[in-house]
Amino acid sequence: MDDLKRLKSLAAEIADIQAAIALLGWDQQTYMPSGGAEDRGDALSTLSNLVHQKITSPEMGQLLEDLRSQQDEMDPDSNDARLIKVTRRDYEKRVKVSSEWVKEFAKATTMAHSAWEEARKKSDFSIFQSHLENIVRLRRDYSSFFAPYDHVYDPQLDDFEPGMKTAEVQAIFTQVRPVQVSLIKRITAQTAVDDSFMRAHYDEKAQRDFGVEVISRFGYDWNHGRQDKSAHPFTQGFGIGDVRITTRVEPNRMATALFGTMHEAGHALYELGVDPSLRRTPMASGASMALHESQSRMWENLVGRSLAFWKFFYPRFQGVFHSQVEKVSLATFYRGINKVQPSYIRVEADEATYNLHIMLRLELEIALLEGSLAVKDLPQAWNQRMREYLGVIPPNDALGVLQDVHWSEGLFGYFPTYALGNLVSVQLWEVIQKDLPNLDKQMALGEFGELLSWLRQHVHRFGAKFEPQELVQKITGSKINPQPYLRYLQVKYGEIYHL
């Protein structure tokens, strides 16, 4: 077993370097001075290339080849067998990518992130345009490493959703889109819900403190995490013992920090729950971004926007924000935080319209990679699709094409996983409700321990040990299926809007 021991040693070294890369990335988005972008880009470029070289080294290739016979004799679900399988998959992908590309991409995205922050602040796409053009070129080059492929977008998607094809995602979205569009039309024909209280002025520190109380009750462990501010909320892990979150607080948009904090805590709870035996291996993270998003969207929406949740938290909320919601009943508050209304911002979109924001981004990413859309025309294309899909046109770039951080980081292929995560969250939720029939009563008492324990047992502890579709099938009995999510939307919003 000397080969296996060496593989584990190499995996640990790679994990340590990736933790250092993650720490530099976290600092870049939280505390790094704006003038440090070029130096940070050089450091990240060097470290990213070092990881690439270690994963694609002749030694790694020979180890994986030598371990084939041993793997055949192992329990296929054992940690050792899965380590070999996951590492081999990563090796076989990375060995196709040049070191020069890895270095150039790390530098380009670091510079692009700083440009995006400035562009978003000034609401001026032109500041970001040349950087995005460079990233699109690099992402096309990345796909070319994997030719022939069924679709140019497949290699991008596979990085976040292993094994899934563009055609599969498009087929799922084809099922979802008409149902959601029909639901939105039926809802908007009803009397509008009053949510004016959500746009009152809410003290920034009080918002932040309330969010901290909520996620502490969820089970977020402050001995293994912290919360900071960033231009776009994100979660970053440096190992299973240190997983940090950020938030964005806006005084006149209460939902931004509150539900964003719940969302990021869901991501963090996932990685903090990975089995310690997977520490310093490529399995010590989520199975895929759809699984990751299933956790964040579950805590944000299925828990955080539920009536049961607010039966416990609303008296506390009224105590903190007395002047804003003193005369707002629980029923009115619940309807307000679940109001369906097409809007500009994805992260603040209601459940009924959210997936349309994702479908819009998927279409734009595909068009950019196919070359049918030029980066310079992206703001116009964005606004056109916003009008077609949601009936609204952003008044400026900051509320439109510049609102998301993802393209500045080169994360093409990520956006579809948000919608897939919505679907998986409800698939899991249906099983959870059968296994925990008193869940609503527990949430109404502010108790989330059994829910977190269920997720730790069935989802979190496995990390990336199983492929996403494999894990979903193990838990729910089927692969990713949109029907539970569509049922959930129709029942929930049918009750709220008396459809």
Percent helix range: 55-70%
Give unreliable regions as ranges: none
The top-level CATH class of the largest domain is: Mainly Alpha
Gross morphology = globular
CATH fold node name of the largest domain: Neurolysin, domain 3
> Number of helix segments?
22
Q: Oligomeric form of this entry?
A: single chain
Largest sheet strand order: 1-3-2
Helix and strand element order: HHHHHHHHHHEEEHHHHHHHHHHHH
Measure the end-to-end span. 63 Å
| CATH architecture field of the largest domain | Orthogonal Bundle
* Largest sheet data: 3 strands, mixed
What is the total number of structural domains? 2
| Percentage beta strand | under 5%
* Number of strand elements: 3
The overall pLDDT, averaged over residues, is 96
What structural category do the secondary elements indicate?
Answer: mainly alpha
Whole-number radius of gyration?
A: 22 Å
Report what the structure shows.
- This protein is an all-alpha fold and 499 residues long.
- The chain has two domains: 2-148, no CATH class; 166-497, Neurolysin, domain 3, CATH 1.10.1370.30.
- The protein contains 22 helices and three strands.
- The chain has helices spanning 2-30, 37-55, 58-66, 68-72, 79-94, 99-122, 126-144, 154-160, 166-188, 204-218, 254-272, 289-303, 307-320, 322-325, 330-337, 351-370, 378-390, 416-435, 439-444, 449-458, 468-476, 483-497; strands at 227-229, 235-237, 243-247.
- Strands 1-3-2 form a three-stranded mixed β-sheet, with helices on both faces.
- A hairpin with a 5-residue loop joins strand 2 and strand 3.
- Helix 1 (2-30) packs antiparallel against helix 2 and helix 10 packs parallel to helix 11 (254-272).
- The longest helix is centred in the N-terminal third of the chain and has 29 residues, at 2-30.
- The radius of gyration is 22 Å and the shape is globular.
- The mean pLDDT is 96.
